[in-house]
Structure formats: structure tokens, C-alpha cells
Amino acid sequence: MPDTRAFNAQAADWWQTEIIDMRPGEIRYRGYPIEELIGRIGFADMVWLMIRGELPSAAQSALFEAALVSAVDHGPQAPSIAIARMAMTCGSSLNNALASAVNVLDDIHGGAGEQVVELFQSISTSMEAGSGVEEATRQGLADWRELHGKIVPGFGHRFHPIDPRAPRLLALVEAAAERGEVNGRHARIAREVERQLQADKGKPIPLNIDGATAVIYAELDFPAPLARGLFCLSRSVGILAHAWEQQCQGGRNKGPMPKGWLWDYRGHPPRSISTVTESR
């Protein structure tokens, strides 16, 4: 007779997790019964609990939610939003539109937050070793440019002279630091990066949404890769809203350019295959 207990143990070990415990009539997230969480905590608290394993303090929750709220949408000119809307006009379902859009949130569109957290954390590490913020930032920027090129993620915006979301988020972090709720070091680093970029370029290169949310995620001790995942989670709200709006508006095969607009063809001038076949 096979030992079913051994088989059960092997199956249980295959998918071991500290996130959820479930059996008939019982569901626990990180040890908490779901019925105790429902109606007592908000969605941002639930995200924190699932990722971090503990519930956030009220101060942590407020900053975390502010970051999530700030990045939900940036209009159909954002590639992810445009793709979601186009997918709906091709007959896709909402889940397919969401998946198509999230799949382009990568290094250039959506990944900058992760990169800025890495930059801020490297500067913070130098400060912990004894460097002042100015010296650590100068070295951090030099190291970043040597590895990744001249573009510093999280600063400057192709559309907004000043990203309206960034000053508000940074003000919330600095107010929380004054109350002793967070350290405030990454906010100081962001200010110093901004100052040095302006000195280097001779013009303001202000903090943008990626840099501002990176300040919050770094202050809250999130590992850098999670900054990208959290941006995807946040932007999914806007993606869903636009996909649903497009479905309600209707339309078929809505491409990236308005109907009647054509691309710029720069290939070979018009020619005939007959000139080729006659010479063969």
C-alpha cells in the first residue's frame, strides 16, 4: 500500500508559502482570518500585509497609499494605456487588455521607480559609511552614469515642466520625517540629486513621479524590485478604467494614429518587379 501521508507531505512541500493558509471553511492571510480583515483594513494595508507579512502602522499606510494613488494614470499618451484601449477595440476582454498593457511596463516605461530606489539606496549606503549627502550623491551619480549612461531616472519629464505629483509626495514624506515617522534620508537625497543635476545642466531637472514614489518606497524599506511591481499594481487601476471606457465608447481596430493619418515611409522609391524579371 502506498503511504498517502508521505505523498501528502511531498505535495505540501512542493508549494510551501508563508502567505496564505487555507482549508475547508478557513482562509488566513499571514495568520489573520480573512473575516477579521474584511471591513477593518483598507486595500493598501492588504497589499502591505501580503508583501511584507505584517500590517503597516497608520503612518506607513498613509504614505504607502499616497504613492499608490499618485501613479494610477497618465492618459492615453502613455503606452500602457494606449495599448489597453487598442486591445479593447480589437475585441479583447478586460483581462487581456490589462495583461497586454502591464506587459509593456518595463525598464523605460514603468521601470524607472525601481532604478531610482537602487540609486537612492546606494547613496544612502555611502552616507551610512560616513559620507555626507553631497559627497555621497556626487559619487552615486558618477557610478550610476558609468554603469547605465547619462540619463538619471526619476528626474525630468518630457511633458511636465514640473510634475505636479512630485512636490506633494515629497512634502508628505518630509512632514512624516518631522514627526519621526520615517527617517527622511531618501527625501534629502532626492533634493540633493535635484540640486546637483541643476548645477550640472544649468537648468532645473525636477523630481518626477518615479523619483517621488521611489522616495516613499525607499523610506518605507521596500526592496528596489518591488517598486516596479507596485507601480504595475497602481497603474493597473488606470489601465482598467481606460479599457472599460473604451469598451463603453465602442469602436473597432483603433490604432495608434487617428483614422486617415499615415506613417512616414522612407524606403525604396516605387519600382516594378517586371524590371527584375526581364533582366534574369
TrEMBL record:
Highest taxon in the source lineage: Bacteria
Pathway per the UniProt entry: Carbohydrate metabolism; tricarboxylic acid cycle; isocitrate from oxaloacetate: step 1/2
E.C. no: 2.3.3.16
Record keywords: Lyase, Transferase
Broad EC category: transferase
Record's GO cellular component terms: cytosol
One Gene Ontology term of the molecular function aspect: lyase activity
Keyword Transferase: yes
GO terms classed as biological process: carbohydrate metabolic process; tricarboxylic acid cycle
Protein family per UniProt: Belongs to the citrate synthase family.
Protein name in the entry: citrate synthase (unknown stereospecificity)
Source organism (scientific name): Billgrantia pellis
